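This section describes the prediction task in plain terms. A model, or a person checking by hand, is given the sequence of a single protein chain and must write out its three-dimensional structure as a string of tokens. No templates, partner chains or ligands are provided. The sample shown here is typical of the held-out split.
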Amino acid sequence: MPATNVSYMTWVLVAAMLFSGSDIVSGQCQGSIQDLKICVPYVQKKGPKIPPSQACCDAIKGVDILCVCHHLPPDIGELISIEKVVFVLQVCREPLAPGTKCGNYTVPPNILPA
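The expected answer:
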């Protein structure tokens, strides 16, 4: 399956999981979850961490990510890498604080080089 189809299928599955919970649909979280589809290639489970595009960062800035993290279904980690989500947020200058829970993932403490 071509990479673009994999990205699309991943987005469809992620969107289905997010929108199946009425919390997000009913407006619990500010912003458009659909705009985040542009970020799917950067948070797929397979492959290395890669810096996101400016378009992805712009989409992130329009969404209450902390709220989304609190409403992620427990099995979202089977479809996307929450560790990569945290990486993308850092690159986009929208980092989650250490100790923050995002789905079943807890953001680790920042480790400063000695």
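For orientation: The longest strand covers residues 101-102.
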